[in-house]
């Protein structure tokens, strides 16, 4: 079984061993600690730490941590320190003040006795100290919450409502009390009827074929609950697609217009992707790929796109290349693509992602390719790694390691 340290670049691996003393000490003591250390190493080396969204998520995670795993220095800490150094060393004070937990954690690790001792004996491996002007950091302003007046307001409004209702012609007119009671009942029924269509509309929205498919007992109710909760990757509807036709966009030189079969009775979906300058059309024809199927349809220079092709972008940027994420052999159009992990495997995707909630944008910074080229999502808060798989196995990039996915 390969060591998680093999994921590290040689210089960073030597740095880890120099600071932690030995291979065994570097990886933690218990099986649980070893698993956590490995996940943090993947996260520290595979995720783009320059991404502002990811840095903010990491800052939240580090608020309560002295060390990433357990109560002592491990390979995870040195790996993250090594990955953060080239970023933090170039930041002006205003920038590192905005991520105080990262700054506090990084400064602690760089001044750790083991790290400094190793640095003094092998200066070629360890980068110099990053100076932080902590004393002049701006104070965090904490605004007290305004007192809640809602309950009081409701109490004040209730008598006025009652008074208004008793002063209506129906209430003050003379007549049979039974008739008044009946008319009140009719009004209640009308109100009820007005509310019913809205509720039915909600049921229809979450009960569409995309959201209503049950995967191990998920169901439409699970999708409805998911939409109102914190964004998680299982909200994204990924499926195997097959390009059955492709041509260049008539009004945009950089865009392809593809017809992608994703196993729907209505036929292939029209998909527009900006891959002309990165993947030759010959390499796109007849390809099997992973499609993001529940984004809101978008108009791309006059052609409506009904899905997105999932691609891997080199860690060195677009100019270094973009590749299609490929499903495993034996895949068929429409095959479900999901994230490993009990909390995600059987969850039902949302029928259509709400652009205002930025669910995909929140999850996307954690998408990456591992050292095995397998596509995965790394949880910024826990460091856990969840491969992107089908029933036939993992989805992979042809060559890229440490790529971002979008």
From TrEMBL:
It comes from Botryobasidium botryosum (strain FD-172 SS1). Residues 232-338 form the TRNA-binding domain. Coiled coil: none annotated. Residues 137-230 are annotated as: Disordered. Keywords: Cytoplasm, Protein biosynthesis, RNA-binding, tRNA-binding. The keyword Ribosomal protein does not apply. Residues 1-132 form the GST C-terminal domain. GO terms for molecular function: tRNA binding. This is tRNA-binding domain-containing protein. It is found in: Cytoplasm. PROSITE patterns: GST_CTER (PS50405), TRBD (PS50886). The keyword tRNA-binding applies. Signal peptide: none annotated. Residues 160-173, 204-213 have a biased composition (Low complexity).
